[in-house]
Specification:
There is one protein chain. The protein has six helices and 16 strands. A hairpin with a 2-residue loop joins strand 4 and strand 5. The longest helix is centred in the N-terminal third of the chain and has 10 residues. The strands form three sheets. Strands 11-14-13-12-15-16 form a six-stranded antiparallel β-barrel. It has a five-stranded antiparallel sheet with strand order 1-7-10-9-8. It has a five-stranded antiparallel sheet with strand order 3-4-5-2-6, covered by helices on one side. It has two domains: 177 residues, Probable tRNA modification gtpase trme, domain 1 (Gyrase A, domain 2, 2-Layer Sandwich), CATH 3.30.1360; 116 residues, Elongation Factor Tu (Ef-tu), domain 3 (Beta Barrel), CATH 2.40.30.160. By secondary structure, it is α+β, with helices and mostly antiparallel strands.
């Protein structure tokens, strides 16, 4: 990871002064992991994903995307290497079967096996996560912990986070973290996680996937590569993901509108966090037309509750 990557990962904001800093562990049943093994596992995935798989080291995780030939995203992955011929791809559980079936279609003669790995995902946050990973761990680093694998994620609101994956539920004395607290941090991180409601809705740049390190433009061909490259280098990108908040409760897949265009959605929710008992308004990472950002966006209908824009933890080039 270079200096620019470190600067990006270290600049993920700070928690609101009026809110307690989240801490603890939470089960994440909406995550699943694909196990890819065999002598050609890396070569096969390298030709399918938006990320460089060949140079992936055992102590490093990377974001990766899986696209159609038209450049539309089928899945987002958190990817790490277990051994020379073993790679893991963590994704939303509601996509796992669909993505597994599609990837298997293209294995052909490659010596590569794909399956859904039985196991359990947990999210770790705050001082409990630091106690597990150590003070010196860096975002997107991978380590063994508590009988499983711990992947440190980019912090959000200044709070350290990690995803843990293991064959059995993690055993810990850490406090239980309310699920809304984890969801809020995930949304504030600005890292899109694709769910079933949004399959084939976005080109990677529409959800800022290249801004968080999910696209490698030097790696060569993969499905949709020409479309993704064209979007990057021709300056034709007209949609981006922004962070929004509202008193309305929204969910992934919900559409956003401006009042002047009631028949044409202005955007779509990528991920949302529904407020918990001690949380504030709903927050959402949403893909929107850049031309509508000067107007008021409304949730679900042109007359729906207004949404207010918040700062992302990284800059969007098109917004200056």
């Amino acid at each position: 990871m270079g200096d620019d990557d470190n600067e990006l990962m270290q600049s993920f904001g700070s928690p609101p002064s009026s809110r307690p800093i989240p801490d603890g562990v939470v089960a994440l049943p909406d995550w699943a992991v694909l196990k890819v093994t065999g002598p050609d596992a890396r070569t096969f995935l390298h030709g399918q994903l938006t990320q460089d798989v060949l140079s992936l080291t055992p102590n490093q995780a990377r974001w990766a995307g899986y696209c159609t030939a038209q450049g539309r995203m089928l899945a987002t992955f958190l990817m790490w290497s277990v051994a020379e011929h073993e790679v893991r791809l963590a994704c939303s559980a509601d996509l796992a079967d669909k993505v597994l079936k599609r990837l298997r279609m293209f294995v052909l003669r490659a010596q590569c096996q794909l399956e859904i790995e039985p196991g359990y995902a947990f999210g770790w946050v705050g001082s409990s996560m630091v106690a597990m990973a150590g003070e010196g761990a860096q975002p997107m680093s991978v380590s063994a912990a508590a009988g499983g694998t711990l992947i440190e994620l980019p912090p959000a609101l200044g709070v350290r986070r990690a995803l843990w994956w293991g064959a059995s539920p993690v055993q810990s004395q850490a406090p239980d973290l309310p699920r809304p607290a984890w969801d809020e941090l995930e949304v504030h991180s600005g890292v899109a996680r694709l769910v079933l409601a949004n399959v084939e809705q976005f080109v990677p740049q529409m959800v800022n996937w290249e801004l968080v390190g999910g696209v490698n433009f030097q790696k060569g061909c993969y499905p949709g590569q020409e479309v993704v490259a064209r979007s990057q280098y021709r300056g034709t990108l007209k949609r981006r993901a922004v962070l929004l908040t509202s008193a309305a409760t929204v969910a992934a897949g919900d559409e956003l509108f401006v009042q002047d265009e009631p028949d044409q959605p202005a955007g779509r929710v990528v991920l949302a966090a529904v407020p918990g008992a001690d949380a504030g308004e709903c927050v959402a990472l949403a893909e929107v037309r850049l031309s509508t950002l000067a107007e008021v966006l409304h949730a679900k209908s042109p007359q729906g509750p207004a949404m207010r824009r918040l700062d992302l933890p990284y800059a969007i080039p098109e917004l200056g």
